[in-house]
Amino acid sequence: MNKKKIKISQIVINIILILMCITTLYPLLLCLGVSFSNEKDILDYGYKLIPKNFELTAYKYVFANPKSIIDAYKVTAIYSILGTFGMIFCNSLMAYPLSRRTYRFRNSLNFYFYFTCLFGGGLVPTYLLYTRYLHLDDTIWVYIIPGLVSAWNIFLIRTSFQSVPEEMVESAVLDGASEWRILLQFMIPLSKPVLATLALQTFLGKWNDWYTAMLFINDKTELISLQYLLQRIMLNMKLLEQNNTMGFVDMTIVPGETARMAMMFVVTGPALIIFPFFQKYFVKGMVVGSVKG
Amino acid sequence: MKKKIISIILLAVMILILAAGCGSKKDVSVLKVYIPNMAGQIQDLKMVNDKANEILAEKIGAKIELIFIDVGAYTEKMNMKLASNEEFDLCFTSSWLNPYDKAVKNGSYYPLTDLINENCPDLWDTMEDYWWEGAKIDGELYAVPNQQIIGTIPAVTLSKHWVDKYNLDIDSINKVEDLEPFFATIKKNEPDVYPYRVQGPIGNEYPSIISCVSLDTSVTDGYKAVFAWDEPGYEDSLAKVRDWFKKGYIRQDIASCIDDNNDFKANKYVVTHTGWKPGFEASQAAQLGGEHAVILLKEHAEIPTGGATGTMWAISANTKHPVESIKFLNEVQTNVELYNLLCFGIEGEHYEWIDEDHIRQKTDGGYFLNQAWAMGNQFNAYVLEGQDADVWEQTKKLNSEAVPSRLYGFTFDNSKVQMELSQCETVMSEFKNIFNGSADYTELLPQYKDRMMKAGAQNILDEVQRQLDEFAKSQK
Amino acid sequence: MKLKKDDIIPVKKRRRIGGREWQWIQMSILPVLHTFIFCYCTLPGLLIAFKDYRYIDGILGSKWVGFDNFKFFVLSNDCLRLVRNTIGLNGLFIITSMIAQIALAIIFYELTSRKALKAYQTILITPHFISWVTVGYVVYALLQPQYGLINNMLATFGIEGIQFYNEPAVWPAILSFANIWKGVGMGCIIYYATLMGIDSTLFEAARVDGATKLQEIRYVTLPMLSRLIVLQLIMAIGGIFNSDFGLFYQLTRDSGVLYETTDVIDTYLYRTMRVIGDMKLSSAVGFLKSVVGFILVYLTNFIVRKYDEELSLF
Comparing C-alpha atoms, which of A200, A92, A226, A90 is closest to residue A145? Predict the structure, then answer.
């Protein structure tokens, strides 16, 4: 009796999800269509799912300078991976003591970190700090170090640590495990799903970051992040377009919609490929009970 | 809890003060020069930079380091560099890119009058007075303008294709309204295009100062500010747009259109407003394809209020080398060789002479900038292939005939009416549909005025008037 | 299940720092220092809000002006409407997107086919990458008054089209929907991952007791998520004054007619900065947003604490 019921519910669930996927895929395919179109067709006929004239112009344009793109992929991959691992480690480090009720600084530290969620000094002091005192500009560290600790993630990891069954911690303590061992050998492995989620979000955030590169990379063009390398052409064009009434800026050929879409796929494509890597940590169905034994 | 916050803030403040006390010092006589970059990667920058240093070595006794910053990031990055009081020497500044008046208000630029008098008084003679006057703020000069075209002639332009197809007699047209029968023809026969592109109000006589306040040009003794809606012909112009909208001359979705640049590039508009300058037709053809007809709406160019501030060089207030910096600026403005080196690179390497007057740039070379207007006195620039050999003569003529705006050199200080300005800005956006014709103004106009008055329009008018009176006094 | 996991450490010893606590302190040092340098050292920037900030004088050297920089916003005619819209819309977003994310997480959890799950998850996170500008185009293609898909569909049924861009009342719904659409796939993963960490024997026990699916969700799933939900809620409330600018600007196409329901503090500030362009004014508004957000969080946390101390943030 139960089996049949479950089947019906599975069908309903699948239908819901398929409908959602369609609403998601349609715009995505539309963008893909645009990226393979002729620029003029887009201007004349608007966005079309299937390009009127199939063209690779936009991709050729994006890859016009393959060396810098490859450099950018490398840099972006390196700092995204380092930054993500560093973030997970540093925040777990803080989240663990905060998850222990007997830690005497628990409440004040909770407050200490939460305060930074709401109050920040703004861009000017930050710029001053990074460039004048820490000299992070024009180094790869500017992508990695500032994001190592995030109050948001500390709290999310803390919450996850808190739901690890207490008996496990107890038995570990009785076995004489140090707090460091409890963190590294029990807490982190047991919280893999949540950690993987946060890692994914951090990774994608870093992968798509262009603002850091815009502000802090000056001379070392080989350190420019992928997203900024592509965005900057768009930013330049937008600015010149807005000001072309000035009379002295001569507009040259402008790469438009098609290039923008092509860039989106060039940037996010690899990020999407990486998704299954994270996914395996939360799809497998880690069951706490099974680890216990 | 309160105590906790205060002590945290105090501690942070103390650390910053301590840290600020021991800033690092550098002592190299290399001038750091920030330039916006429209080109992307510049491979041969070092080569050009070295060559420039060769030229400069005997002239100013200092080297320069050219640092190009993407134009799209330029304003933001320079804002940070100025705000953090970074030590550098020179940067590009203008009314629209790395805003000049804002930086001056922040004290970020070095005052130049004395510096020029002492080091290179000849620089004053390279430009007409109106350049210098236009670049001054509160009587002091903080940047050297890059002399070039000062203003454009208001015009409308349309593709030759339409002119020929419908036998439009260009010469009989003196103002936009004369095109009405033509709009009707287009509307009837060409369903795929929009006859007219709305870019600001049609037929307003008075120049706008700020927000809803304009200058009453009928008063010639002193300056008088009026509300835009008190201008003669204000309602007529609203009626006209409304009429054109109803007749379909204006795109029907104008109310929800934020960026129509793509439509413009796709030649969806038949008639667009523009500013004409020598060489305009060629650049228009390059951008949109096909030949274009231009109808000049005025005889002479107008010098807009901030005309001279379109492209300039400033010296940082934090510079350690003000004298070398001004000497460098003097060179950029007067030394033809240096200027063209910065604009076009090295002869043979990045460009070559194709005849006596023209050069051809290597578009795939390591130094292809296409931004001579940002580098210095453009009248010293080599003439590019395709330009008229006398393009700079033409431009000079246009400049000399140009009519300055009556408010030339006036900058409005908004610090006393910021709240009113932001309120009025919101009301104006809310009612923007009466200005593009998509809403019926007869009902909404009284509401609009009422809302504007409640939003403090009167205070803005009074403040403008006060500053105009001072401006008039300072001119005598 | 009441959690009292740390009771193993005797209360008496709390006076002195014991070995275990020393290790916790060791762990804390790095993050605490990092936060001090990267967050607390920038705090003098908050002073800009109270100063007539000139770059050349620096933040500390500029003249104090008290609350002058706040006046343009606080005394503004538009202030009330902006606060109402900001809290109303962002509050709506917090609630609707949270419900959608939890619902989707539960649906994922119930799904039996792993392969299908992977596919759905991958597809549903993609909107996260599409910029608001592009979403704006798609929405416009749907809602455009003359050629828009929706009005065309209505027309075939003989229903008169809706002038969406002239109809403020429909926008809270449109914006909420777009917000869910873009964020649900990404947002649900954290809930889903938390569900994955739950001891599955709990569900089995519920099933053995004859609980229906809905009862199972009500009495097992949601309580297990409660800690995360409360945390997310508190964090979201702190940021309730920060709006996703692209969502509001690109989707409404900055249509003035819609301001009644769509103008929020951040879009207002953007417009203001276009005409005034003064950093100290935006600093003042930012400061105000933080302070009010802080008070709201404090209150929420206080209430939560009364209800269950374990759930509270600090």
Answer: A90
**ipTM tops 0.95:** no
Q: Could you tell me which residues come within 8 angstroms of residue B25 by beta carbon, excluding any fewer than 6 positions away?
A: none
Nearest CA in chain B to A254: B287
Tell how strand B269-276 and strand B208-210 pair up: unpaired
If contacts are CB pairs under 8 Å, which of residues 123-182 in chain B contact chain A?
148-149, 151-152
Instruction: Please give the Cα distance from C259 to C53 (Å, whole number).
Output: 31
Q: Three-state DSSP class for B313?
A: strand
Note whether residue B458 is domain-resident.
Answer: no
Q: Which of B380, B298, A27 is nearest to C135 (CA)?
A: A27
Interacting residues of B3 by C-beta distance below 8 A, sequence separation 6+: none
**What domain range is B113 assigned to?**
27-151+306-403
Burial class (CB in 10 A: 0-12, 13-18, 19+), A249: buried
**Which DSSP string do the residues of B316-367 spell out, in sequence order?**
BTT-S-HHHHHHHHHHHHH-HHHHHHHHH--BTTTEEESSSSEEEE-TTSS-
- Beta-bridge mates of residue B145: B312
A170 touches C: beta carbon within 8 Å: yes
For residue A79, being part of any structural domain is answered with yes
Query: Which of A21, A122, A169 comes nearest C5 by C-beta?
Result: A169
- Specify if A177 maps to a domain: yes
Q: Domain range spanning residue A1?
A: 1-55
CA atoms within 13 A on the CB side of A293: 3
- Please give the full DSSP string across A82-139, using - where no structure is assigned: HHHHHHHHHHHHHHHHHH-TT-TTHHHHHHHHHHHHH----HHHHHHIIIIIS--TTS
Rounded CA gap, A72 and C292, in Å?
41
Q: Say whether B422 and C166 touch across the interface (CB within 8 A).
A: no
* CATH number belonging to the domain at C76-277, selected among 3.40.50.2300, 1.10.3720.10, 3.40.50.2000, 1.20.120.80: 1.10.3720.10
Tokens standing for C53? 């900030």
pLDDT at res. C89 = 96
Alpha helix segments (H runs only) across B141-229: 160-165, 180-189
Supply A25's token pair: 């895929």
> DSSP letters of C244-268?
-HHHHHHHHTT-GGGHHHH--HHHH
Total residue count of chain C as it appears in this document: 314
Query: Among A42-51, A92-101, B442-451, whose mean pLDDT is lowest?
Result: A42-51
Integer Cα distance of B371 and B344 in angstroms: 9
Residues in chain B: 476
Q: Does A114 touch chain C (CB under 8 A)?
A: yes
Token couple for C71 = 């006046």
Helix residue ranges per DSSP H, B175-268: 180-189, 234-247, 261-265
Chain B residues close to C75, C-beta within 8 Å: 419
What was the pLDDT predicted at A250?
A: 52
Residues in chain B, pLDDT under 70 = 1-28, 201-203, 476
Q: What is the pLDDT of residue B98?
A: 92
C-beta of residue A267 within 8 angstroms of C-beta of residue A230: yes
CA nearest neighbour of B431 among A48, C260, C23, C236: C260
Q: B403, B438, B462: which is the final residue of a domain?
A: B403
